Structure formats: structure tokens, C-alpha cells
């Protein structure tokens, strides 16, 4: 709260202030402080901002440099990405569900513990984490860039609130409906059959890309609605390996087709099995993925090379005449 100035401090005009000032005191001896002089000031009052650290070398990159994978903490890597350099971001952050419970997978009861990265640290810390990585992503986005975040009710409300705190422009809330979800074993709740995707532009001033005609063409000439009915990843998408929160390629292809300008740079700060990368590179874009686990860096590399064999080849040199 701003502190108001008292009337006695503003009553005298400048001329009266000069007249009422006490006689000039003699200069103090060198190096001696007085109540009036205070401590010595540094020679330069200009604050220095530490230079941004450059991106480290990728853990893996394709021969043509269209796909780059970074092993490490997403916050540390994100802060080293050049500002306003990314066109579209897709993020599937931790849902904080690994609490010792169970679920049904392939007709069997299995643990939902996915790893330490998915354990909750409490509502406040979880929200602080969401706010921090979203802020880092916002800095990396181009002025007209957009961002997609997927989640369930366990995390998506925190994400949406943090986005509003940061000044994102909320564009759409997409419901991904799974036609054949796993049954609810406790029989005490409705069966969880959906996930939510938030789509937002970097700021209210952003002039975001929406490929309306393409979406209409994909939907039999009708406007595409915000409920997308798509099956979860099948065994074919998991032949080279799997991730506990893997998304279907069809989902990533649709959202990238909707929001990417031509030749975009797509970023996924929670790379996982690399589905975002497979969709992005297949559609002709460049890709950056970040993950903590070498296992998933290796899986993504294998999936990228399997989906786009040309990533193994270096582009031919062009002779400039």
C-alpha cells in the first residue's frame, strides 16, 4: 500500500524550503561518515542483470537438427531457451496422482504410482510449481504463440488459475473423450472418461493462429466442437516402449494442425514418450523435448527415427552461385 505524504511535508513551496534550510555544514574528513552523509555509495548505481545462460548441447539431435531432446529439469532448461523463440507448446505436466492407489489397466488391478515426479507436495507447492513452469513457457513463446496443457481435475484448475495470474489469453477448453475408458474399480464414482486441454495465447495482445478451414475440412465441412472423441493409444503406438501417461498421436496431430503456423518450432517441457515430437516432425515442424529420464529420451529417439526415417540423414549441401 502506498504511504501518503503528510500535510506538513508539502505545505512549503520550494523557495520557503530553501529559506528554512539550516546553514551548510562543513565537509567531513575523508572516509568519515556522518548522519547526513550516510554510508558510502557504490561508484555505479546501475543494476546489472546476469546474462542468460545458453542452451546446453542436446542429449540427442537428429541429423538435420529438426528434432532436439534435452535430459534435465524442465525449469533449468526452460530458462535457457531464448525468449520469444517458440511457436507452440504442448505440456502434459504431472497430475500428482501417485499416492499408493490402484487402477484398472488391461483388465487387471495395477498401481497408479508412476514415479517420484508424480507425487503431490501439497496444494500450495503443486500450484507454485505450475506457476513457475508456466511462466518459463510464457517467456519462451513468440508474441503470437499459443500453448496447450492437458490434465484432469487433479491439476487442471491450478493450471488454469496460474495461466490467468500470468496474463495468458484463454482461447478454448477442449474435452478429450475416451470411448473405452478403464472401469472404476471402487464403484463409488462415475467412470473417468475425459481429460481437459486448455488452449491459451501468450497474452491478450496476441494474434494467435487458428487454422479454421483445416479443422472444418477434418470435420466433414462443419465447425469443429470442443469435445474430441479419440481413442487412447493402442498397442501399435507402444511397440517401441510406453509411458504411463502416453497420449495418442491423433490428439497431438489435431491440436498442432489447428494452431501451428508453417514451419513452427514446437516445444514439450514434459516430453515423456515423445508423442508431441512424433506428431510435430511428421507434420513438417521442428521439435524440442525435455525430460528427466534417459529412458524416455531413448524411447523418443527410437520413435522419431521410426516415424520419420529421413531424420537420420543430413540435408544435402546447397551450392550458392
UniProtKB/TrEMBL annotation:
Pfam families: N6_N4_Mtase. PROSITE patterns: N6_MTASE (PS00092). Residues 86-301 form the DNA methylase N-4/N-6 domain. Its EC number is 2.1.1.-. It comes from the Bacteria. InterPro entries: DNA_methylase_N4/N6, DNA_methylase_N6_adenine_CS, RM_Methyltransferase, SAM-dependent_MTases_sf. Residues 1-62 are annotated as: Disordered. Keywords: Methyltransferase, Transferase. GO terms for biological process: methylation. One of its GO terms (cellular component) is cytoplasm. Residues 39-51 have a biased composition (Low complexity). It is an enzyme of class 2 (transferase). Signal peptide: none annotated. GO terms for molecular function: DNA binding; N-methyltransferase activity; site-specific DNA-methyltransferase (adenine-specific) activity. Belongs to the N(4)/N(6)-methyltransferase family. This is Methyltransferase.
